[in-house]
Amino acid sequence: MTSLGVLLVMVNLGALNVALPAIARHFHTGAALSNWILLSYMVVNTVLILVFGQFSDAFGRKMLYLLGMAAFTVMSFVVGFAQNIWLFILFRALQAAGGALIITNNTALITDAFPEAKLSSGLAANVLISSVAQLVGPVVGGVIASTLGWQWVFWSTVPIGVVGVVWGWFTLRHLPSQGSGRRIDTLGGAVTFVALSALIIALSEGSSLGWTAPLVLGGLVLFALLVPLLIWVEQRTHTPMFDFSLFANRAYAMANVATFLNSFARVSVVLLVSLYLQSLLHVDAFFAGISVLPVTVGMIVAAPLTGPLANRFSARILSTTGLGISAVGLILLMGGLRVHLSASLNDSGMFLVGFGSGLFMTPNTRSIMTGVPPERRGFANGLRSMLQNMGQVLSTAVSMTIITSILPLRLQNVVYTGTSGTLPAKDMALIDTGYRLAFLALLAATLAGMAASSLRGESGSPTHPGG
């Protein structure tokens, strides 16, 4: 049942990545607003995931999960009627709030329901469903955007949401957390909301406004000022949202760092390849969706292997190996993505990125979720999901900044919406260089993730979840 929520969210996100050029053309948006078609969801979702984590620990998970499913479904219907780009961004932000409730409670519900011996299998099944959703998403987005229109990219997920709400109401067990009745850290949540919003907006706008723009600098300064305030507030609160004592566990801390870096390195691969094919090589949305499938196929192949392997080998070994495989895939992509595409390098590179990420996720998630007391699983999953989303937001912002930073203004919009003609070889070479530099940044993050994963140490036997 919980996997249906993942299916709903991931199909929607995957479809939007491929449908982005069609939406940008429909609303006649430039580079800055096109960026917010993607980031409006990610900003709100990322900020609220962590804030909602404490609600999960305080009030239980079932009703909050179903509320998120209902909200996401309603907004999936409404967003298709947006009359301008500002309404579109507003509706996507509201949809993101529903998605935050789904993601915050999803993994925590699984961890509550499965005994420790079977938890890896439960988490692996969830990763498998998520991977299938990512496989279906780009295809659905490509087919629907090129035939029925971008609106149906959202409307097509409404039946999934309706089924999920009804099914969940009757089948989900009420499993209140052991922390039920815990007081909500209102001040800590408010400071966190403002601080993360400032950071994400600054990072998001840096690629379009420039890193010295007042909005960008103001956001970074505000974040820097609020972090010490948050630490001060949390140390003086009886029921803090942030339990800093958890990070004294090196395995837990390094697993969270690796989560962020893996997300940063993987998420932009589908977006970058899809944009390159559509905007520069004039490939239609359907074929672009098909072309990025090797990433998800790799995750699907890896998912059923990780459950049994996680019971035999430590998270340190499996997760570090997975990141290493992803690094090899990124190296192949740096050589394969060019005007005269190397299909073998591209497909192999995307498959390895997906396979490596799939091998990484299950043992790393198990290490995080079983490394905290049961009454803090809502926070632990909220933090893990927030770091994943922060990786996605930063990955999108940094990747697009790297690509456009070396381009003249006349070529920057081409990266998002394409051009009706063929670009001169000199311009294409410049854009190709931007894309290779972006993939180089993703490779650097992957190597840093390998270092973090290996530094978590061996905290027990291979079957110990914190290993």
Architecture blueprint of SSEs:
Blueprint: H1 2-27, H2 31-59, H3 62-79, H4 85-113, H5 116-147, H6 151-155, H7 158-171, H8 186-209, H9 214-235, H10 250-280, H11 285-291, H12 293-310, H13 315-336, H14 343-369, H15 377-405, H16 409-417, H17 425-454
Helix pairs in contact: 1-2, 1-4, 1-5, 1-7, 1-10, 1-11, 2-4, 2-8, 2-15, 3-4, 3-7, 4-15, 5-11, 5-12, 5-14, 8-9, 8-15, 10-11, 10-14, 10-15, 10-16, 10-17, 12-14, 13-14, 13-17, 15-17
Structure description:
It is a multi-pass membrane protein. It is found in: Cell membrane. Keywords: Cell membrane, Membrane, Transmembrane, Transmembrane helix, Transport. Pfam families: MFS_1. Its main location: membrane. The protein is an all-alpha fold. Residues about 175-180 and about 460-465 have low confidence and may be disordered. α5 packs antiparallel against α12. The chain contains 17 helices and no strands. Helices cover about 80% and strands about 0% of the residues. The chain has two domains: about 1-185 and about 240-455, MFS general substrate transporter like domains (Growth Hormone, Chain: A); about 185-240, no CATH class.
